[in-house]
């Protein structure tokens, strides 16, 4: 079964950077409502650095590790470590596979989620990027188990991430800067979950060709 | 609104170039984002490194110098520095006695400093982190990221800096830093929002006649929004919140009335008069105080009140000589 190739991983990061750049203003607006209003611009800076750091002709694992390192080195805030860890952990799993297939990508996404959970000490329901990433990982695995091809599984993950992000609106934040708002954080889309949904959408669009 | 900038993306590096030009006592890397004492590293002295988002000037770069910080790593506006910056600052000042990282309790700062500490381990540099979390406006830290680090950061940096200057080892410097944090509380009030240059719009809206109680230092909204009160009422709200958490009666205090960046000094002194009255009326004695813009939030209007319960030793360390761009006495 076909997996995430090096060129596909390269296109994924470029696509994610383009989507983040296009939505930077909206992400910043979401962050201004419940945080400090810099999420879109920070992540745009980080993904631009990730694109600049992409190695030529490298396997998928190396591509994601390089992108993750660049995100940590250039983003700042909580987004840098969290997105950097997400991509580096996924990259390490793929890097350990001889010929990573769709199941290996599932394992990589699972490792990415575990990394983000550990570093952010956040669980589902805390109104963070975990609320988009966790359902995406589950949906990917379920789609694959149900016999979906790689693009279909990635699409299921993207749709679940988008739904997960939308589901953060009624939540009260328990992590990150929004948590200081208490009940006033209710009624706003979490910017980290929104940007995570963009990154998963970029993956689906890349694999759908 | 108009800002005195060249381009939103260049604000921090341009400001660092200005800092370097104004203060030859500092070694500034405007592109790498580090501000270091020109005479660092000092062999055998514990080094203090702090950092956080820019936009809080003079915190932290303005507190680099003898008697306080050895280096600061200023991030982008309201964004924590990246691990590369923190490790560069750490390596520039390590004199073999270890490095204290003074970290304000914000998710991004804590994560980036933690990653930098891991990198320092690879370089065989001993790093001890101390997290400042003095903000009483965050009521329940079980369901939040915990109390924010605000005005007491200045107290921690000054007093731990004095302890390091007199030759204490890393454990002792870290211990006094934690002691100051535990004995300090802060509460802030915003009378206007501020505008992050890259975002170009205020981080929140306040109607005429409203104020935001319990703000942090990133322009983020606070604990609740209420009808704006007099200076006396604002100070009463701040000190009542502090006193409820850390009783002040009978204590000798270090007090900071801190402007958030957009409140003139005359109003800060109006606030300080109310603070002095309130504390006198509640049986506390102010033995040291500071009034001015020290931990700001760009051009936000408002004040933050911080109090630290002093001991004779802490008072002595507070009084020790300090020579930095923003704080200097005794030398």
From TrEMBL, chain A:
For this protein, what is any one GO molecular function term?
Answer: transferase activity
Q: What is its EC number?
A: 2.7.1.-
Record-linked Pfam families: Dak2
Enumerate the UniProt keywords alphabetically.
Kinase, Transferase
Q: Which SUPFAM superfamilies match?
A: DhaL-like
- Which residues belong to any copy of the DhaL domain? 7-205
Instruction: Report whether Transferase shows up as a keyword of the record.
Output: yes
Q: What class of enzyme is it?
A: transferase
User: Which InterPro entries did the record assign?
Assistant: DhaK_L_YcgS, DhaL_dom, DhaL_dom_sf, Dihydroxyacetone_Kinase
Say yes or no: keyword Kinase present.
yes
- Write down the PANTHER family for this protein, in alphabetical order: TRIOKINASE/FMN CYCLASE, TRIOKINASE_FMN CYCLASE
Protein name in the entry:
Dihydroxyacetone kinase-like protein
Taxonomic placement: Bacteria, Bacillati, Actinomycetota, Actinomycetes, Streptosporangiales
TrEMBL record, chain B:
Residue limits of the DhaK domain?
Answer: 7-329
Q: What is this protein called?
A: Dihydroxyacetone kinase-like protein
Q: Which GO terms describe its molecular function?
A: transferase activity
A Pfam family of this chain: Dak1
Q: Which Gene3D superfamilies match?
A: Dihydroxyacetone kinase, domain 1, Dihydroxyacetone kinase, domain 2
Q: Which organism is it from?
A: Actinomadura algeriensis
**UniProt entry tagged with the keyword Cytoplasm:** no
- Write down the EC number: 2.7.1.-
Q: Taxonomically, which superkingdom?
A: Bacteria
InterPro entries in alphabetical order:
DhaK_1 (IPR012736), DhaK_dom (IPR004006), Dihydroxyacetone_Kinase (IPR050861)
Question: Which keywords does this chain's UniProt record carry?
Answer: Transferase
Q: What is the lineage of its organism?
A: Bacteria, Bacillati, Actinomycetota, Actinomycetes, Streptosporangiales
